[in-house]
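Anyone have tokens for Tetraspanin? Sequence:
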Amino acid sequence: MARGCLCCLKYMMFTFNLIFWLCGCGLLGVGIWLSVSQGSFATFSPSFPSLSAANMVITIGAIVMVTGFFGCLGAIKENKCLLLSFFIVLLIILLAELILLILFFVYSDKVSDNAKQDLKDGLALYNSENNLGLRNAWNIIQAEWKCCGVIAYTDWHDALKEKVVPDRCCQEHYQNCGRNSTNMFWNRGCFEKVEEWLDENKHLLVTIGMVTLVVQLLGMAFSMTLFHHIHRTGKKYDA
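Reply: yep, here.
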């Protein structure tokens, strides 16, 4: 009976980790495609130029793929080294998530202020030739979210050193509308819109976080269960 349960656990762990590995491969592929074909869509932050959507997807995909590989192969081969590696990787990820979460809540005001200032600094690069990605990013976010600047449309006046805004700030969009000071611009900043979206979807985000936490804890528990069984018996059990 116990051997049957462990056998079932072995194939359950293999199946779930195979799915995670395939998801990681998919994310890695999407990230590479974004990096190659959509390279002009970059980051809002001048302080972290590598923190683009493509690089984030590539990093997450690689971590998921490697973790899934350890769990998948460790389960099906009943390999103690791979199972232990899988457990350690999940533990490191879990601890990193907890540390980042604690730091974020402790220094939330400072993080918010630094983010606002960094985004404002990035506005000054809007018209530079080698920052097409930043320009595209701001155009898209302002058009989709109906916002202008970081705090308000006047952020663009300080950044561009003249009383103009990007055309995507205009409520009635047409070419060079941002140079007409009599036009109506979106009066809410994009930072406020993002905070509002996060507040409206906080229950969904908490649910996703809890599901992720449960999956990680179950993965760690399953891997240790198999690890201790193999270590105790000193041999593989028959499948």
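The mean pLDDT is 84.
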